[in-house]
């Protein structure tokens, strides 16, 4: 009797899941992870009365003296009726990156602190000085002066970390120092609540709680690939959704803090926006990757290099631009004064332009007011309606009403509710500069370009709009009916 071959029709079984033993790794890394304790003096609010927070009881009742004594013991008041300054303390985490005593943590862990203490694994307390901090990336660098070299951990490459990779977090949750948890990378490049322009958090299901902030997220080689910074939790405890600042962002910022005490970021001065499906369709792109240039800040490196509004930036210094946030991160990481090749898409052609990176300056954004007043439309002014927009030539009255530049030609005076234009947040006072990447000088030019797009079977059309000095591209759906 012939025997059946085992590999003829047998189903292929997946390899068994092997969970790595993390004990030896944890024991090796624990000495380099520290607790960060801070204290801050909170001065009483001069506008509040000392008894504002006391329970309200009837004057002369037996409870009046009881509650007064209780609030005095809690620091809410004093016998002379004056509120006392209080000490607020908090605990976070950190890790040693240099045996000489340099410690990385989150900026929010030490923000506002009068005193910072680093507590080592053996419970040694060392006073720490602040070397530098960067609120934009939520990173801070501390320095302690030990009497011997401290155990330190190396940076890893967060860009090579993949979803599903095993990771381990060590920190000080709820004051429980030396706590080790493990999990996997759940997602990459997360932006949470628009915390910052360079946010590309690693998401992990390793248990992270309050007090883990500033602690390291390790790969299985014992390298730091993230700094645990935030959690998503309706209850305040871990539900398996934690976020870490990627090491590839952090190590560049920390190196600058160590060298100069502050972060120095690259800048090219281009106003960019996301390439969504409508924009990609209007431009004839086959994907939504890249960042669309809407305009420039005066004398910007991007403009001087020859980049134009409407260009879609695809690569920056040899690295792919997956979206506008990724471009912001790549530019920020680039060394100031470096000449960088930028690969872009322009009207159906791929070009490469070299841009010299400038230095970013912190500046508050300014928003122009549209003002109030009459309609500014005279009976003789032609009014054209298209795609939910009421547009017309920019008369002197309209320029005065909306505080427009003298060069404005076509202005929006009304936006229909529920229209494609309303969905894209267009407003009265917006100036239409281009339609389908061609300059328009009249309302009829706009209508002509829309008619051309309809005849060509386009599903959407791209407008370049000036909103109070802020240029952006807007893709509007075209009704083919």
Automatic annotation (TrEMBL):
It is found in: Periplasm. Its main location: periplasm. The active site is at residues 108, 138, 213. Residues 254-323, 367-442 form the PDZ domain. It holds the Pfam family Trypsin_2. Its EC number is 3.4.21.107. GO terms for molecular function: serine-type endopeptidase activity. Keywords: Hydrolase, Periplasm, Protease, Repeat, Serine protease, Signal, Stress response. Residues 38-63 are annotated as: Disordered. The keyword NAD does not apply. Belongs to the peptidase S1C family. This is Probable periplasmic serine endoprotease DegP-like. It comes from Aliidongia dinghuensis.
